[in-house]
Amino acid sequence: MIKMLIVDDEPIICQGLATTIEWDTLGIDLIGMAHDGQEALPFLERGVDLILTDVCMEEMDGLELSKYVCEHFPSTKIVMISGYDEFQYARQAIRLGVEDYLLKPVNIDELVDLTTKLKQEIIEKQRLTQAEQPKRISEYVMHQLFNTPFSSSVAEKKQLLTSPYRLMITECVDYHYLLEVLSKDELDQFKHDFRVSLDEMLTEFEVEHVTFSGHENEWVTVCYCHDEHLLDLSQFQQLCDKLQKKLAHPIRFGISNLEMELSNVLRVYEQVSDLLTEGRSENTLLFSVQIQRSKKKELSYPKEAEAQLRQVIMAGDDSLLQETVDQLFLMWQEQGVILEQVLYTCREMELMLKSRIKELTSSSKMAQVTFHLQERVDLQIVNSMSAMKRLFIGDLRCLLQCITHHEGENWMMVQIQDYINKHFQLDLKASDIAEKHFITPNYFSVLFKQETGKSFSEYVNSLRIRKASELLSETSNKVFEIAEYVGYKEYKYFVQVFKKHVGVTPTQFRRMHANK
Predict the structure, then answer these.
(1) Residues 418, 402 within the same domain
(2) Any one Gene Ontology biological process term (predicted)?
């Protein structure tokens, strides 16, 4: 049925027009009567398809009302009824867009024929408008969000959507992973399957909708329906659950509040986008503006984690690097920080690690190391903690490889051996050297044996005995002085070690070389 309003300043005429004809049998719903144009305005806001109005009324006459309706509600048809058989009224009414001009007393048959004819025109236009509505809504929303072209009058925009709606934004979780493992055709097929499934399920839920893409990993859907119950949040939770079961990859949902004005769609979109931005570090798949969320914590710079990562990288231990990064990201996830903050913190850690390791190694190759996270990162693509972690650990492995393949040698052992050669006379301990080079004592022992074929103590003793042998043969220093010089505090122990390595005591060694 179409909605009709009668406007006349004479109550008896209003009542006569309302009761003389059984409007409901004609498919017309008489929603009310007003006694001047001003009284008619509130009805217009609720939706009116056809107006029967008098011309001469005090507050706002029929011509003023017609002008207002044509400007603000162009789809509403008007029939003007007047006792004035004056051409100027009729001409002015026609110019304003009035459908017809009837004289009082109204011929009932003529009025029935006219309203029946107009009803059919209204229904046909509504049918055509309804068919075009999704396209027009989509164009209007895209214009509001992305400033795409849209030509329409203010009045037409206002009548684009008169029912309540929710705006929904969906995206693939860890889209970066899909880009890595799927071909372009496979990814396009996945997106197609998602769109088809989304359309089918919303249709099944009896929710009208329009969906379009605002980004390669973003779908914006305006869900609208006159029955607010069909737009209940529980419906969208069911939609989310069903889609997760049907698709091979998880989808994240952001849902707006129930809205009435499509002109506010930009604000609504930004609200939902911000909601998703805050939630990308979580494992949750459905976020609603309607649900109150706790405020995200600020992320403080993890100095201890940086020190651990530096030690692991310097040690060249890839498995421990993975374990350390896993623990760091688990801590961040439990703290409930925003993914954007994680990105900025990872960037800072990378630069600090590179700078510090470059100081320690003096490696020329360090300047050539580049990081993916230092480039532009789209958080709608790298939109999960797992994606961020993969990129971060990939960057750190570049540092690790630069150290472990330093000019064809094990850089760590070059540094350690150089240190021992310069300080062998001191009371050296394996644990102290390991700490100085940011590795664990156990890893130090394994690495040292692997690279030199000797234990740490064997290597130091052989270095000291070699130096002692040179001094015994080339100087006249006393044996106990030479023992102290090369790092032995106990003379008897020095003699014991010397004989084990050379086969004779220090004194015997000196005599043998003195004879030469």
Answers:
(1) no
(2) phosphorelay signal transduction system
